């Protein structure tokens, strides 16, 4: 066999990633599409000109703090420095959604993926608390690496340019850091991870439970402990094998992906688990994936491998990228080794290489803020209060928890955090109440109902309830009991309330 045939056989069989690239980019297109759809439906009421935390105020504050717009651009890179409005936010998001569908449909090149990366980074960097989740910077890092999987211009599903093996290894490095970070933050955090009891509480107290969460919560204790031990095994042991020989890598990839699928079923963690699956596909080469994909796709990948030619430019770019990621990984490695490990943190303004982690602390009890309104002009002991329902978080004890992921109702998540704190730590909740007192259409679009369709309420209050899953077999999904007042009854005429809103420049 001559040298050329040996070379082709090597790339066609054991060291070929044409199908791997195909799958990674399709799944990335799906995640991008979900992320931009969430933005298109929620950005304006959350951070628009009259949103709960307006982004134009946020950018103005950064410019004031840093002394110039140029300094602000360097610290918080976003295209919205050049202009921002409600219509622009909406158009921007829908364009991102449309471009994501192109990638999902099978067409992607470096230019298109770079555009999507810059667009989503622009949203994340003005998203404030609504975009303060680890999966936002994880999507940016994943999207950045994906740019270098593709040729510059050729957007076909199987271009003649080979997938750079170094970039495949960088995806493995990303998946490794995600899992090891998540595992270490647990062992260093809540003691219940060490005594294997965290899942006694997690399914009930996680941000947005699914219908399956209730059944998992009432699993036998031995099974919940086994699940916790398995969690440690998958997060702390399995990722090392993603750098091993082919069979070890394939087994590791299967375990890592099936673990994420279980997490998808067990709760509503936004698009986090779908996104986390992406780098794990780098554990598989074409010899594995060819058994699971349609024959037509496999044959196209084989033809592309046979017709491809090595590219020195692509290889050089991959080397430069690897050096960059290696350099930026230094603080993340020190962070993993540190006893003061940071969770979901970025060391560079572009979020190129980050630290990750999840559920370092698990709540033992579930408290929920219930917002109520009344159209009574005077509050008495006989006042009838009507509850506002959010789209996904627990409210009405009879309402079944939804399957909502990978979509994320962002206000529901922030209400979950707020229930563990005071209104002073979450001042946007006062603006939220002000909006409800005006029946603001944008704010109401974030909720599941409007108890006052004929006119705004006179008063809004917020009460704290403790929720527990109702035992299996009961018609109710939740049991709840009132704990305390979270916000007193507020009206538009309350002078102290208006003064607080004026100080925050929210009196619109």
Layout of secondary structure:
Layout: H1 3-12, H2 18-47, H3 55-66, H4 69-75, H5 86-104, H6 110-124, H7 134-147, H8 165-188, H9 191-194, H10 202-205, H11 211-217, H12 221-236, H13 246-266, H14 272-280, H15 286-289, H16 295-307, H17 312-337, E1 345-346, E2 354-355, E3 366-374, E4 386-387, H18 410-418, H19 428-437, H20 441-444, E5 459-469, E6 478-490, H21 495-503
Antiparallel strand pairs: 1-2, 3-4, 3-5, 5-6
Helix pairs in contact: 2-5, 2-7, 2-14, 3-4, 5-6, 6-7, 7-8, 7-14, 8-12, 8-14, 8-17, 13-14
Please explain how this structure is put together.
The protein is α+β, with helices and mostly antiparallel strands and 508 residues long. The protein has two domains: 353 residues, no CATH class; 138 residues, no CATH class. Helices cover 53% and strands 8% of the residues. The chain is built from 21 helices and six strands. Strands 4-3-5-6 form a four-stranded antiparallel beta sheet. Strand 1 and strand 2 form a beta hairpin. Helix 2 runs antiparallel to helix 14 and helix 7 packs parallel to helix 14. It is globular. The N terminus is likely disordered.
């Amino acid at each position: 066999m001559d040298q050329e045939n040996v070379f082709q056989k090597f790339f066609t069989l054991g060291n070929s990633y044409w199908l791997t690239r195909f799958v990674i980019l399709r799944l990335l297109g799906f995640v991008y599409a979900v992320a931009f759809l969430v933005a298109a439906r929620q950005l304006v009421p959350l951070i628009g000109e009259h949103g709960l935390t307006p982004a134009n105020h946020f950018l103005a504050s950064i410019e004031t703090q840093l002394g110039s717009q140029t300094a602000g651009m360097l610290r918080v890179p976003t295209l919205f420095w050049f202009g921002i409005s409600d219509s622009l936010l909406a158009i921007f998001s829908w364009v991102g959604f449309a471009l994501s569908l192109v990638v999902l449909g099978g067409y992607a090149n470096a230019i298109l993926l770079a555009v999507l990366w810059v667009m989503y980074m622009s949203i994340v960097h003005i998203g404030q608390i609504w975009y303060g989740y680890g999966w936002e910077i994880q999507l940016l890092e994943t999207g950045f690496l994906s740019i270098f999987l593709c040729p510059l211009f050729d957007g076909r599903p199987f271009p003649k340019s080979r997938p750079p093996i170094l970039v495949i290894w960088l995806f493995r490095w990303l998946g490794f850091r995600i899992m090891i970070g998540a595992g270490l933050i647990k062992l260093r955090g809540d003691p219940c991870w060490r005594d294997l009891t965290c899942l006694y509480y997690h399914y009930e107290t996680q941000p947005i439970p699914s219908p399956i969460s209730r059944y998992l919560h009432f699993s036998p204790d031995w099974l919940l402990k086994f699940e916790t031990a398995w969690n440690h095994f998958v997060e702390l042991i399995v990722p090392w094998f993603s750098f091993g020989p082919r069979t070890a890598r394939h087994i590791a990839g299967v375990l890592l992906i099936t673990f994420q699928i279980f997490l998808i079923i067990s709760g509503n963690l936004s698009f986090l688990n779908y996104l986390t699956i992406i780098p794990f596909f780098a554990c598989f080469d074409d010899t594995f994936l060819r058994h699971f994909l349609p024959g037509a796709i496999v044959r196209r990948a084989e033809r592309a491998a046979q017709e491809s030619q090595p590219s020195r430019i692509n290889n050089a770019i991959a080397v430069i990228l690897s050096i960059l990621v290696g350099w930026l990984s230094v603080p993340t490695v020190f962070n993993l080794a540190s006893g003061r490990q940071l969770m979901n943190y970025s060391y560079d303004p572009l979020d190129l290489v980050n630290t990750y982690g999840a559920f370092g602390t698990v709540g033992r009890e579930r408290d929920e803020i219930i917002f109520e309104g009344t159209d009574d002009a005077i509050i008495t002991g006989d006042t009838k209060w009507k509850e506002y329902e959010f789209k996904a978080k627990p409210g009405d004890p009879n309402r079944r928890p939804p399957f909502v992921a990978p979509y994320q109702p962002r206000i529901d998540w922030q209400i979950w955090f707020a229930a563990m704190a005071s209104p002073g730590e979450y001042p946007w909740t006062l603006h939220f109440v002000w909006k409800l007192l005006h029946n603001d259409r944008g704010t109401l679009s974030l909720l599941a109902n409007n108890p006052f369709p004929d006119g705004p309420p006179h008063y809004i209050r917020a009460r704290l309830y403790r929720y527990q899953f109702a035992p299996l077999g009961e018609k109710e999904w939740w049991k709840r009991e009132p704990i305390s007042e979270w916000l007193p009854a507020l009206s538009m005429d309350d002078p102290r309330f208006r003064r607080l809103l004026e100080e925050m420049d929210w009196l619109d």
